[in-house]
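Dear colleagues,

As part of the handover before I leave the project, I'm documenting each prediction I ran so the next person doesn't have to rerun anything. This entry is a single chain, and its sequence is reproduced below.
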Amino acid sequence: MAVAPSCRLYLITPPLGGADLAAFAPRFAEALGAGDVASALLRIAPAAQGEAKRILQPLVELATARDVAALIEGDARLAPRVGADGAHVSGVGAELAEALASLHPTRIVGAGGLRSRDDAMSAGEAGADYVMFGEPRRDGFAPPLAETLERVAWWAEIFETPCVAFAGALGAATPLTAAGADFVALADAVWLASSAAAAVAEAQALIAKATV
């Protein structure tokens, strides 16, 4: 297996509403400081789109203070308005093309929701700064870990564009790192834990195990 000695963490927030910000912001800050977090994907609940700027700006500021790249889910136009480092979009259609046109070369554009190898290759060829494998779909379905491991190992063997591997559980961080992931993404495995900071620290230790 390919080993990614520089594998880092990528945190994905829950979909946030305005009422969530006061409680979530301190947990977010603690989590960012608990490990080698490279990026954070900030998500807004569908019902809170009108409050997006108010919710996102304080989180972007927290990420910036920790030298963590803040990415906005789905809305490339919003990223510059809140001072974010880029956007994460789903699929290889118009949304990716528009994000690349509006954000490159000064900001990051990541691509997820890639159903096939062809989709992943198309995203890389289009200029996406990273591809993501294994994240849950909008209907809640999540690929099995074995499938994500296979996709990560294939990508790491052939392509230079970094890949983010979604870990549904903390324990998945070790095999995903060993398969060649450049980043391990964590969502509920962190935010549903009693201590988000402790969960990040545990994930960091599991990544380190795979690089020994």
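The chain has a mean pLDDT of 95. The radius of gyration is 16 Å.

All the best with the project,
I.
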